[in-house]
Amino acid sequence: MKSLKIHLFILGILLAGSATAQHKKTFQWIGGPTYVLQLGNFKILTDPMFSPKGDSAFMIKKHPSTGMANAYIQRYIAPAAFDTANIDILLVSHPHADHFDQQARNALNKQLNVVVPGANTSTLQGWGFTHLRGLNWGDTTEFKKGNETLRIIAVEAMHAKDDPLKTELGKGNGYIIEYTVNHRVYRIYWTGDTVWFDDMQQYTRYGKINLFIPDMGAVGSDGHIGRRGLNSQDCLKIIETLHPDLIAPVHHSTFSMYIEPIAKLQQTLDTTSYRKKLRIVPAGGVVVL
């Protein structure tokens, strides 16, 4: 009987370890706005930019700093290698040229579940993707696997503060991502391309943010057209509003259009109580959540 109890005890430890591994959560930055979230049995890929390192990674209709038409953007850092197998969801904040490139369109399985701003569903249909869920601000979609639930809520992303640039860039999404298993919720807020706006203060209604993923770079801040994304001061306002457990910035260091170095965010947070919550992940680096 004693031997049986010991065997059952050991089996219980092994099963508990297996369950923990099954529900493991990780974040891997690929470069630019692209990262992979593994949330238990769900694998999420965001804004795919697969272009190689080089002087002409992609073309943008109007350079955000100079205003030059049809300008090529340099990629400083090659996209990190990652396992493209078993991607469950492609999560798209908006399909601008610096968030969804031709290489990704060619490489990705067109049968993927794609969550995209409602206004952009026809664009991705034209690219051949067939399983689309278009979300407008406030809309929600869910995916289930056994006792695991992934809930994605589209929230406002204000690409620029003022018109005409604000209207020209169009609407994009930020997302609240909620992973639930055994009644325990892990919550992520990804900003997408946005500047700070006062209604962000209402995002506290979604509950505790465990992981905050801001798109950084302060794109356009050195030109006359206008800034079209977060700088470190904007990011600090969001952090002070939501008090996240962990901060993992993306959308920095990779492309020549990113103006503000990520070290600026580090310097900004170094003077606050949030300095130990920042994780500047190298391309290809993995953080266990």
UniProtKB/TrEMBL annotation:
Q: Specify the superkingdom.
A: Bacteria
Regions crossing the membrane: none
Q: Which GO terms label this protein's molecular function in UniProt? A: hydrolase activity
Q: Which UniProt keywords apply?
A: Hydrolase, Signal
Q: What is this protein's record name? A: Metallo-beta-lactamase domain-containing protein
Q: Which organism is it from?
A: Chitinophaga flava
Give the range the annotation lists for the signal sequence.
1-21
> One Pfam family from the UniProt entry?
Lactamase_B_2
Tell me if Hydrolase is a UniProt keyword of this record: yes
**Is Hydrolase included in the keywords of this UniProt record?**
yes
The segment(s) forming the Metallo-beta-lactamase domain are 44-252
